[in-house]
Amino acid sequence: MLNKFGIGVLNLSLSATPRSHYWEDPLNQAVMRAWEAGIVVVASAGNTGPGAMTIGAPGNVPYVITVGAMTDNYTPEDPTDDILASFSSAGPTVEGFVKPEMVAPGGHVRGIMQPTAELAVSYPDFHDGDKYFIMSGTSQATAIVSGIAALLLQDEPGLTPDEVKYRLMSSARPAVYTSGSDAMTYSVFQQGAGLVDAYDAIHSNTVGAANRGLDIDADLANTAHFGGPASAYEEKSKGKSYYVYYVRDNMGEPLSGDGY
Question: Which residues are paired to 133 by β-bridges?
Fold first, then answer.
């Protein structure tokens, strides 16, 4: 559902260290207003991973779609060697929310940039001298998910932000071990629902809404704030670990616990 200005998707390829609870940050409040107005907000997880609790703001807002990064190891035709990017920030957030929601290609992504741009001049080895510049980061991964969200809205303009988020998460593909086990290669705090899948998201008939149990109106009115399902425990030999006792599948059914 588009807002009165006709904006469907807001891409926020930026991240900063959170300095407060998600509901107290002025930028986060603006982001929540945008989501409430019907704008799908897609935000970077941040590039301070791989440690836990490194999700930046505004990606720590529970309502929005937060994106981490993976890399194809320069073999785009071979998915077997795809890995999580070493810099991709991981959850949970301070309030216990599982982040990122998903990952997308964020290693050595090529984009259009004028050769006179500051980045191109500062890092000439990454510019081809003509049109293209290569960068890595969750910012690049975020832009890819924003594009898929725009395709979803083009195909189904009536989708709400919560429905877009649900569709993207329900069609994502988690990385699992190749031994036939369904055990996740990376924790839910590192990859969320998994690698975004544009084709399956667009062609899916799945109906549902994300952010169940949250109330953005109450959050913005400062009458209620929320925490996520993640918890922590500490062992002398291993330090602090984080877990979700019940990880839910794409249809909301509980699966086994997951930790990081």
Answer: 111, 127
